[in-house]
Amino acid sequence: MPVKNLIKAGEYHDSVSLMLAAQEVARLPGVEDAAIVMATEANKGILKEAGLLMPQTLNATANDLVIAIRTAQDNPDELLAQADKFLHRKETAEKAGDFRPRTLHSALRSNPAANVAVISVSGRYAAQEAWNALKSGLHVLLFSDNVSLEDEIALKRFANQQGLLMMGPGAGTAIINGVALGFANQLAAGPAGIVSAAGTGLQEVSTQLARYGVGITQGIGTGGRDLKEDVGGMMMLAGLGALQADPATRVIVLVSKPPAPSVMHSVLEQVYAHPKPAVVCLLGGEFISQSANVLPAHTLEEAAWLAASLVKGEKLADPAAQPDPRIAALRQRLKPPQRYLRGLFSGGTLCYEAQVIWEDFRQRGRLTPAVFSNAPLHQQRQMSDSTLSQGHCAVDLGEEEFTVGRLHPMIDNSLRIRRFLQESRDPETAVIMLDVVLGFGAHPDPAAELGPVVLRARAQAAEEGRELLVVASITGTEQDPQGLSRQAQALEGAGVILCASNAAAARLAAELVSDEHE
Q1: Do domains 171-312 and 327-513 have the same CATH topology?
Q2: Arithmetic mean of pLDDT, 67-71
């Protein structure tokens, strides 16, 4: 089928508009495939793999918009014009009579009891809006990225002086006094408090706690750079202090990727100085605890298990203690050429946790070659091209290279679907691992989009005489808008092999392609 591209030089639209327009174009009669994206290098690579890239589009820049279609019709130019019309159609969500404040100050005037501002604007404006909020006496959840390190340090110093929380930049999740902010889940109140430098890390730990019947007091996000040397863990320490002072919080959980050594020292020093028990998960970063009240956790799964055991006053069954009973039967389905695992993640922390587990397998001589990633544990494992997998790979589709001009993959499944089909066609692919994240802000029914794609890919693999294994976990609760059991039923109905946690899914995926069994 012929492919046609339209390049709109220097034209920008928000990611929601791009997604909605692309969906409408894909529904037009005769359109087999369509995409509307900013011409970043990653997006051009994706178009190429999808067979939607024309040679002239290679010269387009990240500031240019590309409309690409593949059609059997003889009127591709008319279809491109229709796509352009969809894109420029002005719609408003405002209803007659509704008052929608246009500034932070007008919002405060209309609701003077508000004490938290959630800021999600372009990075160039985000710092100034955060300053406005802090100077108005508001705690801040700064969802925006692309804020300078200097601005982050200054904002957090000021917030500390004012006794305010400055969560972010890049803080995607928080649950404050039971209110979910950003990407977050519906959780019961309970005695565990969480401070996390990782949004999906906070979601995974809190929803795993929910499966043990343990609720939370607060879930405080800090932003991913908080534990860097220059920032000094200012919000991790402030959040920790708030939970230590909170009588409703009986157990504290701290979550991050390995911090700078000096920051880890400061955090642990504050943890040791207080009698309240704490679980510290540095996701692969190791430390030897100097207190029986402070428990190190290697994974998010282990952090939730240890915290639930502390809350309940008994050692619960270790979820990692027993191997998955499905391993042997699943391995028998694979053909000799199938040897690689491919992780396609919407949650950056879940991608990181999977790599921690796979690195453990590698160090035990059970997984070769090493796993490469666009967000690797070690720089020497950086993928040379994030749009092309080679060997074992873990791809974080929420990284900025994939989200410029696109909605986050927790909201929009289109990019992951394209990549999934790409990986499923590779005869060396044995296992594709997915994370499915539920909750407020996430896609309203991810299984409804992912399930049919899994069915189609598995059917295609079967026609070629091979089995495609798809392993996944769901981060969510039954009370989430999407419903945990509804999503699980739909995914399992499509042939997805579900696990109880992201860590369990990573272990199973590694076992299925491991070099030997212990």
Answers
A1: yes
A2: 91
